[in-house]
Specification:
Helix 1 packs across helix 4. The chain has 104 residues and is α+β, with helices and mostly antiparallel strands. It is built from 5 helices and 3 strands. The protein starts with a helix and ends with a helix. The chain is 57% helix and 13% strand. A hairpin with a 2-residue loop joins strand 2 and strand 3.
């Protein structure tokens, strides 16, 4: 039997794993301000287009970004609540401090 705490921890780990890559984290930072065309998302240093597509796919599958087709281009933006879900996936410092106190 899997309890909801284990499920929540697994979902949080999957979400954090999606942003653990430096390129994906950089892409999220660029998208915080406003939606961007895929043509404007090339990180520095530049990476091949197929690798950029892969990183965007990982972020899409994690539910952190969405793409909207505009002619032959795709505009990417953060999904509603993406940053809040990332924040919620991080450990609560007060909870960690309480656990450390109990262990001692």
């Amino acid at each position: 039997m899997v309890d909801s705490n284990t499920t929540d921890t697994g979902a949080a780990a999957a979400l954090l794993a999606a942003v653990a890559d430096p390129i994906r984290l950089q892409l999220l930072r660029v998208l915080v301000g406003q939606p961007r065309c895929v043509c404007d998302l090339q990180p520095e240093p530049a990476i091949p287009g197929n690798l950029l597509s892969y990183h965007l796919k990982v972020l899409r599958e994690a539910g952190l970004i969405q793409g909207t087709r505009r002619g032959r281009w795709i505009d990417y933006s953060l999904t509603d609540g993406a940053l809040e879900r990332l924040h919620a996936a991080l450990p609560d410092p007060a909870s960690v401090a309480r656990q450390l106190t109990v262990v001692r």
